[in-house]
Amino acid sequence: MLQLEGLRLSQGDFTLTADLVIETGARVAVIGPSGAGKSTLLDLIAGFQMPDAGRVLWNGQDLAPFPPGRRPVSLIFQDNNLFPHLTVAQNVGLGLRPDLRLDNDAQRAVRRGLERVGLAGLGGRKPAELSGGQRGRVALARVLLRGRPLLLLDEPFAALGPALRAEMLALVGDLASETGGTVLLVSHDPRDAATVADQAITVFDGRVDPPRDTATLLSDPPPRLREYLG
Amino acid sequence: MAQRAQPLGPGTWAGMAVAILVLGLTLGTLGAVFARAEDAAAFGPGDWAALRFTLVQATLSAVLSVLLAIPVARALARRAFRGRGWLITLLGAPFILPVIVAILGLLAVFGRNGLFNQGLQVLGIAPPSIYGLQGVVLAHVFFNLPLATRLILQGWQSIPAERFRLAASLGFTTRDVNRWLERPMLRTVLPGAIVVIFVVCLTSFAVALTLGGGPGATTIELAIYQAFRFEFDLGRAALLSLVQFALSALAAGLAAWVALPAFGGAGLDRVPQRWDAGNPLARVADTAWIVLAALFLIVPLAMVVASGLPTIGQLPASVLMAALRSFLVALGSAALMLLLALPLAIATVRLGRHPAGAALEVTGALSIAASPLVIGTGLFILLFPVTDPVVLALPVTALVNAVMSLPFAMRALVPALRETEAAHGRLADSLGMTGWARLRFLVLPRLRRPIGFATGLAAALSMGDLGVIALFADPTQATLPLQLYRLMAAYRMDEAAGAALLLLTLSLLLFWIFDRGGRGNAAT
Fold first, then answer.
1. Nearest CA in chain A to B445
2. Under a CB-based contact definition with an 8 Å cutoff, are residues A146 and A74 in contact?
3. pLDDT tens, A71-85?
4. Would A78 be classed as within a structural domain?
5. Complex ipTM value
6. Contact A98 B424 (CB under 8 A)
């Protein structure tokens, strides 16, 4: 269970506030216009930024003392999810050990992860030799290997076309079901929210509202959201 | 922005340790010189003359280099021609050219029996001497005109091509373009270029040693060397060191005051289409400037090659041994530079806008104004009670050279590291890549190119350096530049020519190998 308890962060004129609970295993879309604070919210959970007040708790434990790499969190960014100078297998292997000292078991796990996302046999390639969709799959294989219970996606696969993006998001959904992971997906496309997430959070002008049922929210949006959806 | 309070990693601590070492070498050595100066020597008339000469030659060198560079840069900015890229690469060469080699080349052209003077004699004009103020300034212009040209050319290239299109659509003449586009650019670029060259010329030693000297043409650096080496007058050396240090502080202040240009050479290969430069007069003038600048650079170097070729095959063992020594010092110095520069760059980027980060960046730039002779004198005094400094001549030379090439390394490494951290830092953080893993799998692979470039630069600069080694070495452990200087002083010009060609080859080769190693097979 992820708890954001009286969370507040000010940056100049902008203030983000959040006070909510997300159940384990939930898939939550984060919807709102750009500049509203969606990415800042993810940064606070991932540990890239520290709140001025309030706490981020996972299963009751305060995450404040943990740097980003030691939080129960895996991340998918908009781009730069892979190191271009490392091979596919190395990129995935970093999810097991950041120093890449991989024993035989670990190497087998890397191969299995690549198989699971449909990239068997491509471990020796560099990211530049893959298509955009394949690169996304590599990042997901790493998420799988890390086995962290909370997956944060910040407008993921933005460079992919709509069909391919839907396919990747479906894969995210499958992986989350298999591992029982909790998913937070930032997107400005409500269709993404509808396909993957059963719940949705709205962020307007730094105000983060608690999760609601996606279908209800989208069928009967409050005024601000209606304006945004157009 | 409330950035996460990052715990200070080992890289950051190492960077701070390096900063302290650099400060110790630049400031601490000055203190050592002072502590040993028994009685405060009075600042004599000779010292005043040295101070005056230092300022006059540095000012003249900076202003002349930049003034001459403006038309050359303008010509390069608006003319596309075959060999343009090659010429721009050549403009980067003097930076890694051993000073003493260039001087030999300049002597072959502008010396008493040089090509230029013979030409003048044919015309019935009495040739001026290359020794003294004019020679020192000539050599400085030779080294810095290319640097100034590149800096100003960068300014020209920074004017977006669309502006020239707009100017053309408004019917601007050459004069209008100059007034509305070029002069505003020059106003921002020129002060920085002048200050950089002024600073570099303030600590001029090898040029003054070979082309200057005597009461009328001694720089402070040369005066320190003479006080230390010939008179062993530590009081005077200390006093002169203080003056040199004050000059450096003045220079550092100047540099902080004007925006210093970046040393990068990126994007110099395109020529925006120009509609205002079509008139024949401008075309002729541009061609003349390009040809003159190219000749000024190429002929002295061609003379070194031509006169060195016959003797390079039969150099005496003393020269070959000196070459080997220099080669090893250069490799050691390049390795040391990396050991210093990497942690310093990592700490600088990691601490970011924190005041400590700014302090580290300043420290990294400090030695551009520091005086190798002051550092050398201080180290000699510090080492003297412990061991025979002469034994340590070569390691000390490698260390001082490494510190002197730090500013250039930092200029190559820090922006590249910032870029890497911006693009991949969050991913690395989220995967928990810290310390050695981060260095090995993120920093080193991404920084391969700037590391190769900086290492090549440090190796070449050390290979050709004639500075600290002149203070320390006895005849049995001369480096190649020092050996070359001795050959010249003994008028053994044939051997000197061969040695100069060898030194030139080794310097360029060292730079090329490392720079190439950084580019080759680069992972993208």
1. A85
2. yes
3. 999 999 888 899 999
4. no
5. 0.84
6. no
